[in-house]
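Quick question: what would this complex look like in 3D?
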Amino acid sequence: MAEPHPAWSAPFERGVLRKLEPVLPLEDITPEWAWGGSTGRGVKVAVVDSGIDASHPAVGHVEGWVTVDEGPGGTVFDTAPHEDLFGHGTACAGIIRAIAPDCELHSVRVLGRALLGRGSVFVAGLRWAIENAMHVCNLSLTTSKKEFFGVLHELVDQAYFRNIMLVTSANNMPVRSFPAVFSSVISVASHDSDEPYLFYYNPEPPVEFGAHGVGVRVAWMDGGWITSTGNSFATPHISGIVAKILGKHPELTAFQMKAVLRALAANVYREAAG
Amino acid sequence: MGDELEEARAKIARQAGEIERLRRRLSDEGFAEDLRQTLTLAAAAGTIGSPVRHGLLLQMIVETAAAVIGARAGSLFLIDFATDELVFEVAFGSRAEQIEGHRMPADRGIAGLVATSGQPMAVSDARDNPQVFKDIGDRIGYHPESILCVPLFYADRVLGVFEMLDKVGAPAFSREDMRTLGMFANQAAVAIELSRTYRHVAPLIGELLASLGDIAADQKRTLLERSEAFAAHAEEEVSYRETLDLAKLIQEIAWRGDEERAACLAILRGFADYLRSRPEPEEM
């Protein structure tokens, strides 16, 4: 029996074809156009991490919670508010909040007590974020386990087709870490200047963006603060900027977002720019 | 182990001049390559490649890493997956002897975070947060100012964590320090994994030397020949070879994934239970 024929060409038929707004010519894109006046309002940002401490002054309100865990009967999703086990998720949330103060933060806790099975919990957390229609996912975590290559590839494609921006940390160790190495994600490593809005574009992927990740003052456990270095802390800078851009331009697709970010990168030469 | 360790320390001390020269030349790109060459030389000279037990090898890796990076203390933890704990394999610096062999839960602290996330991380104003870093403070008897922590990767798995405390002469560990420690972590992971798999020194040295890259070809050949001869001798023992095969098979299955590991465990447990329940053979 033949498979039903997919109507891939249907969206292009006369009378059906949607009219879309143009984006500015790339050389005209400025920070003012991209995020001027935006606070990230209306943008749902999932922090897939160790949890968020909502009582930390750097974080403010956390809109949604889910703790992902492996139970005896399979994966368990608990939507009660939780703590941050390490401080890492709070650090990421604080950075995002500082850049996009009115975005909706959702804490997806996948780093837990058990070390084994962490990969499958991470996958389940990412799937939750995609199925619950987050707009931006901050993934300062990755997995290097090859057995998750396939399922993560599928999820990353799903996120791309649903226009969900996955912002992921590159791992500085000599391992391939997923989903940071996939082409549709916004992958981030660190530069060492301390300007939160400054980022660079790297024309030689897989890691395409460099953001503030050295000596970053971040919120930590017990209401504390630490100064920290790692790509984990560069990533939420880009997540915050993406949330801020989406707050003003919710129609942007994932591939347009990358083009806009590239146009705004500090190492892109602009003749006219002041 | 004491004498061997003293001898190794003396060798490391003799290399201090070389290391100091390297550190003065610490430039972004050149340093890693210089370090690699130093490690290669050290291997050729016998500091790393001499037939020592893997515990001693790890001790040397931790001490050399601390000397090259300039850290007051350092330790290496391995993950015990059965209990979700980090076990101190090797410690160097203050209270090192008391710490070795100790365990701590993997769900807290910077080392726990790096073990669970697989992401390297440095913290520089740790003393402002005595509560946050209480675990380290309790462990070593003082509160460190700066911490550098990288995962030990072997293939695609995190085996443990390599931690340095208190950068000498600077308030924080740098990105270059992170990269350098990462290289030492790779050496340590290779040593640990090979020693776990083969429980044998000769192949370990061979693999370690191979992983260090190019050394003088004739030196390398001699070393490899010696290690192969040693390994071949051991492999003549049928029971050794079969046990090795079994270990390799179990490792291969375990690395496949959680479900495969659980299945393998269930099958082996079932077989062991059956053997235990079988009546003991009559005494002859």
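Answer marked as accepted. The longest strand of chain A covers residues 64-71.
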